[in-house]
Specification:
single chain, about 350 residues, Isopropylmalate Dehydrogenase, ten-stranded mixed sheet, two-stranded antiparallel sheet, 12 strands, about 45% helix, globular, binds nicotinamide-adenine-dinucleotide, binds 3-isopropylmalic acid, binds magnesium ion, IsoPropMal-DH-like_dom, manganese, 3-isopropylmalate dehydrogenase
């Protein structure tokens, strides 16, 4: 059956990396001999400029009918002074909510060829292979009220969770851990936040149903430290929306660059949403130097989780590994004095390798 994929390029380097990923998808479809319908939609600052909304209803409708959605990134300084509800980021939060993708999987591994691209000592990076399960449609990002109050002299953001919202994402994390090294680290701030105390309670209650999984609870400040002092001790991490956002950018350093970190947002009845963890990178946008690999690896996750082509997903991951091992680097991965290639050349080399593997 024809699969429908909607690409939402967004802003800044989002458009550059999704152009390459779209090409990768077109080539893979040809190699697999399948027909995929590829469509595009507006989101973010560009969507606001064209339609007055960072998430036009037309985009939502297209996504709801798709089998999978690939998103680049949104945002940029030109939209930073807009009211919160029409900022580009509101478009991103909106599509996550509308697709009900409450579990954001952010796998973090080290690549043998890239140990020196990380500022951490190579011996610390040996064997790092973890996945952060970030709650994505609740918590501090979505709780109401969220407003200036008392005539602008005070402000409130709300961290709100229902027990059910915590339970469903924690269950995903337990299931993932069962299929991996059976270790689940729940990260919270239970020494201060009531929401975290409930989070911890739910994790402990559910742990009885997953007796083969070893659970520990780590406070988020300590977790931030342990991510760089003993990163290979983690298997699956599950945490609240904002904690997960912050910890995953920190964990990007383990891989060498945020340009290497993919993600899959799943859990809804509709399509999964696949996006690199990085943003629109206004500092390098338009220069052709963005690393497209986080988006390629997100395409691999899409092929595995939403489209049912695990062998094509394996091929992409193997090709990324191979090209890196050949010494090819984008600028973010290159050491000082080391040669690097632009977005298009990296894309072309990986795509050529994928072609060889799937031919
Ligand atoms: N998923 C998303 O759409 C998303 C995620 C994060 C930030 N943002 C938005 O992006 C804008 C910029 O945010 P920021 O600067 O804090 O974060 P960012 O991730 O865009 O950039 C942080 C740093 O990493 C570099 N970088 C990021 N991706 C890269 C890539 N693929 N290749 C090479 N280098 C890369 C950038 O050049 C920059 O120096 C903001 O408007 C923010 O809201 C969007
Ligand atoms: C742009 C922003 C709203 C977004 C988030 O915080 O979820 C980003 O940082 C991410 O990690 O996907
Ligand atoms: Mg982030």
């Amino acid at each position: 059956m024809t699969k429908r994929i909607v690409v939402l390029p967004g802003d800044g380097i989002g458009t550059e990396v999704t152009t390459e990923a779209r090409q990768l998808l077109v080539e893979i479809a040809a190699l697999l001999g399948v027909q995929w319908e590829l469509d595009e939609g507006l989101i973010g600052g560009g969507a606001y400029d064209q339609t007055g909304s960072p998430l036009p209803e037309e985009t939502v409708a297209k996504c709801l009918e798709a089998d999978a959605v690939l998103l680049g990134a949104v945002g940029g300084p030109q939209w930073d002074n807009l009211p919160g509800d029409v900022r580009p980021e509101a478009g991103l939060l909106g599509i996550r909510k509308r697709l009900n993708v409450f579990a954001n999987l952010r796998p973090i591994r080290t690549w043998p060829g890239l140990m020196l691209a990380s500022p951490l000592k190579p011996e610390l990076l040996e064997g790092v292979d973890m996945i952060i399960v970030r709650e994505l449609t609740g918590g501090l990002y979505f709780g109401q009220p969220k407003a200036r109050v008392e005539g602008g002299r005070a402000v409130v953001d709300t961290l709100y969770y229902t027990r059910g919202e915590i339970e469903r994402v924690v269950r995903r994390a337990f299931t993932l851990a069962q299929a991996r090294r059976k270790k689940l680290t729940s990260v919270d701030k239970a020494n201060v936040l009531e929401s975290s105390r409930m989070w911890r309670e739910v994790v402990n209650e559910l742990s009885v149903e997953y007796p083969d999984v070893v659970v520990d609870h780590v406070l988020v400040d300590n977790a931030a430290m342990q991510l760089v002092t003993r990163p290979n001790s983690f298997d699956v991490i599950v945490t609240e929306n904002m904690f997960g956002d912050i910890l995953s950018d920190e964990a990007a350093i383990l891989t060498g660059s945020i340009g290497m970190l993919p993600s899959a947002s799943i859990g809804g009845d509709g399509p999964g949403l696949y996006e690199p963890v990085h943003g629109s990178a206004p500092d390098i946008a338009g220069q052709g130097v963005a690393n497209p690999l986080a988006t390629f690896l997100s395409v691999a996750m899409m092929l595995r989780h939403s489209l049912g082509y695990p062998e094509a997903a394996d091929a992409i991951e193997a090709s990324v590994l191979a090209v890196i091992e050949q010494g090819v680097r984008t600028r973010d991965l290159a050491g000082s004095g080391q040669a690097w290639v632009g977005t298009k050349e990296m894309s072309q080399l990986v795509r050529a390798d994928v072609q060889r593997r799937l031919a």
